[in-house]
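User: two proteins, same treatment. go.

Assistant:
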Amino acid sequence: MARKVNPFLHRLGIINDWKSRWFNADKYKQYLRNDIELRTFLEKKLRSASVEDIIIERSSNSLTVNIHSARPGIIIGRGGTGVEELKAEVTKMVNEKLDIKINIIEIRNYELSAKLVAQTIAEQLEKRFPFRRTLKQAIERTMQNKQAKGIKVEVAGRLDGAEMARTEWLSEGKIPLQTIRADISFAKYVANTTYGVVGIKVWIYKGEVFEEKK
């Protein structure tokens, strides 16, 4: 079962929190659609900034966007001009009179983020690096961090320009997909190579999360 379910959703509400933190029964559809459009826009605009996650929080008169990035300087810009531009564009998209705040949160251990590892692999595949060497280097970088207990990387498509598409994967350590208390970072990404699209999946196991004793 755990092999068919997204590892993040499998643990949602147990050790993972929601990425949209609000509830409004009257405007639920509007806010949900607005959140999806905001995330899509920000991910495209900030693709070079190594964005791992975008958390959106709402209240009756405010909207807060928390952007987790490994390259915060690219988003902030000189003298904070980048944040001001983002704030103006988000205000237009929201189309409501709200107090909008944008927080940039730096990610220091980017090798523990499945999404950032997948982005790095995609960039190298698009530059025609051999896929096996790319996967091995990504696994080595992650496992050098002692917090990582295991990693699995899977790629699918016309690898290295092969005529037929196939799926290849490499792993190191352990990945307990069925253990709900296991803290697993999972991400899907796409590399647009000259031979076609290559799909990338990354699982990173960071140990177990236990409930603190009250």
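Protein 2:
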Amino acid sequence: MFNLKKQIRTLYITGVLGNLSLTGAWVVILAARGFSLVQIGFAETVFHITSLICEIPSGMLADMYGRKKMLVLGNLMTITGDIVMFLSQDYWMVLLSMPFHAMAYNFASGSGEALAYDSMKKVGKQEGYEKYVSNQSIIFRIASGISTLAAGLALYLGYRKSYMISAVMGLITLCFTLTLFEIKGKEERKHSSLLKEIISFFVDSIKFLYHNSKAAKLMFLNSFVGAVDILLLFFLQSKLRDAGLSNWMLGPALFIMEVGGIVGAKLILKAKKAKYVSVFIVCTTGVLAGVMLEHTGIIVLMVLGGFISAMSDDAIQIRTDAKLNSMFPSEQRATLISISSFTFSVIMIVMSPLAGYFFSIW
């Protein structure tokens, strides 16, 4: 029998376990191994090229065959990526691990949100989705913060031990994912080939976005703001060390920046009456302020910039997610969420190498 509280609780647990990792500060781990910011930026590009290819099909498969199944596949991809990184001895092995981590993200990105929203919708409680997204954002930031707090420990243990511990955490997460209740987006599938079904889903999704230009604009704007924040926080891992911050102080500094996301997730729930345009302007300004503060080269101001950027990004992300899901039909929910992530990947493919160059010369 379906139990919403148990379903949401399990999603929270997998959110915690899925984001707790000694390898959360992977940029600084690669930098410590001797890779340049340009190489790291290119590795990030490989990640997003994979996302570009797999994002939309993964969402379609989630709607057609089940969101839980795709979450399980995502867990398996994470474990595989960690093992490949554990075995890596050169840059090419590092690049090989990126597609696995990207596909893990692909299979989880639309499936988890769609499963949560339609689980709530099943019992008529979808109005609680924004609070759910806020809680998941807080969980992500706390878990990621703890992971980055352990950056010094990861550097001390070395990348091999760190990635092996990460793979074990992936196995534990998989065990909880298997207990979720499955809710498909499309209960009655047509008796046609997989290719025809995927094409049909894709065409229907494009038609939806064509007739709902507001949703398409929200996807693009939110993805752009998120990309700037993600890249800033990624490269701050290395830039803070360049500014003179020790390895053992790096973890606490990164944790403080993650706390910014928690503050943003809480603040947006208190701004329910604020117009979306106002929220977008304030949050975009906050992210850009973070970039400007990074350029000061002063450690305290750089950390403050990361804090403000994370706070702004999480706030706009939560408001946008809730707004978009209220527009999406259930049978296409995971697919459309994946298209939103696809948009993010396109922007990141362009911006990642440019950001690697930008942050390496400033």
